[in-house]
Amino acid sequence: AGRDPLYPLQMWLCSSCGLAQLLTDPTVPEEPRGTEPAALVAQAADAVERVAASGLLPAEGVVAEYGSPHGGSWLGLLADRGLVPADRGEKPGVIIDCFGLMHAANQHGAMAERAARLAPGGVLLLQYHALSTIIRSGQWNALRHGHYAYYSTTALTAMLAVAGFSPRTAWQFDLYGGTVLLAATRDIDGYSEPDDVVRSLLADDARAGVRDRSTFARLQRGVQAHATALHDWLAAERSAGTTVLGYGAASRAVALLRQARVDRRLLPAVIDASPAKQGLRMPGTDIPVAVPAELAARRPDAVLLFVPDLLAEVRAAFPAARGFDVR
Predict the structure, then answer these.
(1) Taking the model in full, what pTM does it have?
(2) Best CA proximity match to 185, nearest among 94, 287, 49, 264
(3) Which pLDDT does position 218 carry in this prediction?
């Protein structure tokens, strides 16, 4: 009941290390666990296959995982390859961090913790939403409270070097418009040079301007343009008597809905498959989060999809969705 507290949401680009970070975060995040999207499941399986093919996964041993509240785990996939979760105090030969590091308020401490935990010669696998993707695609709403850092390969390789890691290679995926899985090792013989893939990512960062503050001005200009366009479209649909429902109660949707001044008159509900979110509402709004059955029951004229990676999944789960517009 009542209104949600509101907090400023600002990005800061460190002029020395190049890391994009939250300027401040006065919130105490509550992270209802999301249901793992099919796109994320498929990407995890693909990633494990690629890492195994590279020879960086040992045939057996122990593994530790730093996960994300947004859902998903690679432990089952790795167990199929002979890697079992490490016991307390046991040093794993493999550490998986799938969007986990960005949730650490103390970035230096979090990286040092992973370095101290990993066995000598072990491999750290870090997956992150590339900052170059966020810039090029205008994904300003990737910024949110609870996400303390946004990584370019340039900034992340420097952070790894400080912690005694050598970036070795990387793999790119279409997830979220451009996701990178970076492999780094703690080499007994000292620093190892990165391969051509990592060097290519560093060159791409330079072209995208990930350390140029003027680059981020384009993201700022996109905020109001996107928000105004969304509000105007929803208002026009309402005036025309058509029904629009949202799909995907994602954290990235919160700032967008706030900036666009969207309430339940314009968007009566947001559908989400996560039981932890159902029956709640989108923060900062009066828009309820409803169960997937509501999509079939209400048969909206259009669906506003907040996570593009869910499109194939929504169409497969709700064949009737082929009959109306999905944006």
Answers:
(1) 0.87
(2) 94
(3) 87
